[in-house]
Amino acid sequence: MSTKPDVAFIGLGAMGFGMATHLVKVGYSVTGFDVWQPTLDKFAAAGGKTATTPAAAVEGKSVCVCMVATAQQAQQVLIEGESSAATALPQNAVILLCSTVPCGYVESLAAQLADPNGPVRRPDLLLVDCPVSGGATRAADGTLSIMAGASPEALSNEAGRTVLSDLADPTRLYILNGGGIGAGSNTKMVHQVLAANQILSGPEAMGFAIRLGLPPNAASLEALLASPGRSWMFGHRGPRMIDGFQPLASAVTIILKDTAIITSEARRAGFPTPMTGVVENLLYTALGRGYGGDDDSSLLRLFTEGAPTPSSTETSPESVKLVVDLLKGIHLASAAESLAFAHFVDLDLDLVLDLCINAAGGSAMLEAYGPSIVAVLRGEPAPAPKGDGSDTETLADIYKNLAHAVDAAQQIKAPIYLGTQALNLLRLALRKTSSDNAPASAAVNVWVQ
Amino acid sequence: MSTKPDVAFIGLGAMGFGMATHLVKVGYSVTGFDVWQPTLDKFAAAGGKTATTPAAAVEGKSVCVCMVATAQQAQQVLIEGESSAATALPQNAVILLCSTVPCGYVESLAAQLADPNGPVRRPDLLLVDCPVSGGATRAADGTLSIMAGASPEALSNEAGRTVLSDLADPTRLYILNGGGIGAGSNTKMVHQVLAANQILSGPEAMGFAIRLGLPPNAASLEALLASPGRSWMFGHRGPRMIDGFQPLASAVTIILKDTAIITSEARRAGFPTPMTGVVENLLYTALGRGYGGDDDSSLLRLFTEGAPTPSSTETSPESVKLVVDLLKGIHLASAAESLAFAHFVDLDLDLVLDLCINAAGGSAMLEAYGPSIVAVLRGEPAPAPKGDGSDTETLADIYKNLAHAVDAAQQIKAPIYLGTQALNLLRLALRKTSSDNAPASAAVNVWVQ
């Protein structure tokens, strides 16, 4: 067992508090900092030490975990604020930046630390770009997914690795060797393409189901979750969609923040993200209606306004099929957008796919067609089919079934923003394929130049 | 002057009543039919004759104008309903189908009339597919835009041509020689791509302007309408946007009906309409909120929810530029989608462009770049620039300016669905062009195989 370094922990929000108290539980000396005094009191009660400035928290600590909410906050606590952390850290300390921030920000942070004429001049500090995924429960259990990029020296630093290992599930600690600073944030970003799309596809599908007359109950949900339309997000949010959007597990503003990172980085890189673009606008609409602080399962309200409450308690197989076909089309398009973006920013596609399938971005369609989408992106032959029939549909099949769902939605005047977008993207992809029997993975041709 | 044939007029709604009474005014004997008795009484008071069934209305008339609201209604009054018109019309009479219907419907109507085993067996009847555009005022003035396709025999029929000439503005009667049945409906449809997108782009732009702090007043509107972001629709709806959405000129449900025709025909043809797809979903959202019967200028409400009322009365040039750049990007994308669809359904692109520029689909961007988009679609060299600098921007310029507007919208969390869609489409188009200096017309490359 390796020696546990003393840790400074900056940012004790829903995620950070769980992570920091987990470290305390497994034997670390952790000094926490947060701007919200009641949180600090609570952390002290859980066995942590506390400090009233970032500088005081990091004094003498060889590892500083930063888990604030935004790049602006990270810049404040690490560099610009009064008594910020960077200048106060001991020589050769490690900064584990676990916040979800744009790749562009973490690159600029590395440059600021190293700048010999900058405000901090700390080229000795070892910055690790290591956003996390998994939610508050896994944060508190030390079983997060973590994707870590940095210089070889920072990545191999013993103290930093020890802390990361104790925060992550052992099978879900992704060390992005060779990726460098930005690879962690980019990996999180492409995962969030799936997360964002699938946080919305569930409500859109459930709203469509309700308008088709399916009762919003456990039986309907079960039918949808047992299908190729399933996603991790729908499994997680679905029960709250049929149960008054309670309890509050993840607010609309959380995914909105990550979605804005995706689209702003896409603009910076010159990459099109039409699926996520639709998601972002729906989230702004939700924000304008005052839903920002509500659980994101409540986005269902965007799709049920004006809909009659279903009078039936029966789950019609025909209606279930339409909803499943809607979800399949959306999830194929979001898988293609996510993996194409990962390829565009030079990530290791095998690692990204493995990570996404086993995290909140997972879906049946990603599992089925992700490997062959990766092959298309690399210009390699498609992998052999799994043999269970789950991954052998053609693009034309998925398009045709989605088109039937869109026809049905039009008849009942149901808003299906993502389904419509997916349909148009799959149609653009079909126009770029030479064969009528192109596999579903050809959806990614929209993004292939 | 030609002899005025006796006319049966079926469907006396906002448009039909104006058209029918105009015919009465200029000397026709017109027998009207409508399901709504008060309308019939009003028509009688205006000098028309009335009938209580379609069959009674058409008895002995050599021309039957059908101006009902939907394909379903047309099918009822012409073919399927009790005492429907088709069987009762005299030999070789002309049916002028002025309703906006899908091309697929008018093709099926022609087939039903001609079918020797069908319910009516009237191959002698001359069907003209001639939807109109221009609104209720121009309907009543006899100055509509009319786009007419049919067999050569039907198109050259004297009685039918006489009536069409009296309903249309002489410069806006588009006889689609060689187009056949469907060409009129398709021409209207591609015009409505522009109409639908521009009915929404005005509210989206005005909502963005308000969130940027521009006062929703005449000065702001004037600044936007004097720019390359102008459109006929914004000029028409803009004053009502800043004046409480009054008076009711065109309800949300009207453009929704035409939008559904566009997207369903696009699915039938296998053509992607990503811009119009977004519009349709926004309209369903509006419908769900109960805005269906309101003037479509009130779609502004979709974009201002939760927005603070601007406190300034000043119109900042920087903010105006952002809004103009948003509109320019949207209108370039909608022009490309419309003309590419026109090309896909084999319409005469010069005629379509001329019609659209001079009708409700007009915009500064269509005027500037429409001719060069047509050249791209035909694989011809671009026309010479006009010399006034209005048509020489590159695709990269328009993209870059739109991206700045989208950045600004993201900062203030403004929903800009069409702007985001246009941005992603222009980015896809840029990826398909080999040169950094590709002209703006290269936007249409999204749709070029």
UniProtKB/TrEMBL annotation, chains A, B:
What are the 3-hydroxyisobutyrate dehydrogenase-like NAD-binding domain coordinates in residue numbering? Answer: 182-302, 319-437
Where does the source fall among the domains of life? Answer: Eukaryota
**InterPro entries, from UniProt?**
3-OH-isobutyrate_DH-rel_CS, 6-PGluconate_DH-like_C_sf, 6PGD_dom2, 6PGDH_NADP-bd, HIBADH-like_NADP-bd, NAD(P)-bd_dom_sf
Residue ranges constituting the 6-phosphogluconate dehydrogenase NADP-binding domain according to the UniProt record: 6-157
Protein name (record): 3-hydroxyisobutyrate dehydrogenase
Upper taxonomic lineage: Eukaryota, Fungi, Dikarya, Ascomycota, Pezizomycotina
